[in-house]
Design goal:
twelve-stranded mixed β-sheet; about 20% helix; globular
Amino acid sequence: MCGIGSGHAADGAPGGSLETAPVPSEPKSAPVPGIHSIVRPMPTGFPRNPVPTSPPAPPGDPVVCVPPALGEAGAIDLPGPIELVAHWASETPLAAWVSGDAAAPGEVVETGAGLSGRSRWSVLAVPTGWVQVTDERSIVPAGAGVGAAGAPGPDAPPFVGGWIGWLGYDLGRRLEPTGQGVRARAASDRDWPLGLWLRCPGAMVHDAWTGRWQAVGEASSSASALAACVASARAARAPGRVEPFRLETPADPHPRERYEAGVREALARIGAGEVFQVNLARRLSAPFTGDTRALFAALCARARPRFGCYAESVTTGAPGPAHAVLSLSPELFLEGDLRTGEVATRPMKGTRPITGDARELFEAGKDRAELAMIVDLMRNDLGRVARFGSVRVAEARSIERHAGGGVLQAVAEVRARLREGVTLDELLRATFPPGSVTGAPKIRAMRLIDELEASRRGPYCGASGFISDHGRFAFNVAIRTAGVLGERGRDGRFRRATLDYSVGAGIVADSVPGDEYDETAQKAWAIRSAGGARPGRALGGAGA
């Protein structure tokens, strides 16, 4: 990775303590508690020429263009987002939001109204800087989402430059101190920050409905990187390529009996009236070597997540500790627009194989009860920051087909309008962590998670997504999410790294411990099938 010549606050980032000396001509910004920022310039020699644009857009609207280096938009041989992620130059940083299971306009789900364009867009960007969340006082970059004005139309990209990143589940323990278990035994054995946001002043955005690539914001660096990836992808079919990654089969070091004992304890607490539901997870781990982008792309190619996200720490160029988060989530935590105050959440509870009976899932009593509890929880959370009377259940229950994961999912949708002056920071504080991965009541369920799980969750069960400079935002629930921690070399490849992938199940009064363990094992199939994977080998995924 290329080194940093000098450091200063990222464009649009809050001030903060800096990792390197500030540029002499620029004053050092005042520290902001909980946030550290650093700027990484584009790699030496990387193309910096501005990308020609279409006719200028009106002031405040995003600049949209198709880079000539990519050919005509929608060209048959233009690779899609997943293939380009796989061939992203290792020395160039990457942040990505990938919609791998976009529904065609008007496609109808089994028993619901229909799908919107929320899984339509993918974003690939070259980060120019980052802010790291280190405590609960500042959880999103200052000013995020309140930049450029203008209201794009329904076919305009939801991202015009901004931030891509993640917040870890353990941030919720800071936001809700009473949610920490009195007899907590979850080990804090991983060096994860509480969150990371990558500054992306421009990006290349892909429309799955049309096949078009568009450049948005200050997109010259991202467009150039994308053009280089196109050339790399076309040349990659030549024989003799180096293996992009090696992953041993992830395993849980704890015996099955430990998880089942936790389920029995949860059932006892449910029987005592402490909680109605608790999500209980376990962590699988394995040694990892190689390119995390290639692993993310390989998993996306098979799992086709609707709300996939990739974010990596931006190292200074010298080999050292680094991390990457690879989220393959099918579940939308929050999406909305800070200019209008509209916000929505789509919790999931209930899964069947895609070959199953959608009507049976729609009518299943246990699954209906689980989803109803989480809908009530999310209504309550949104009600803390919403205008009076604006919280409503837009969809009580629908069944979605997730072809990549091979499953049917039961989902609901809750919508609200934020009170005047409510910020994104306040919205996240009111709703984080997502209720579908805690249980109900949320605070008591969080205490049980602390007491019954063997390890802290890190990025898993938090949220990852984007905050656009023009006010749009979207975050997934970080299930089906892997975290890689280890040493990263100058070539951008990880060495002596560990990959963690957690799986969980919702425990309710009629849960059977053995069945719940088996459900988590099924959900682990995606990452286990990736163990020892080779280029071009199909990877699978099912479950949440």
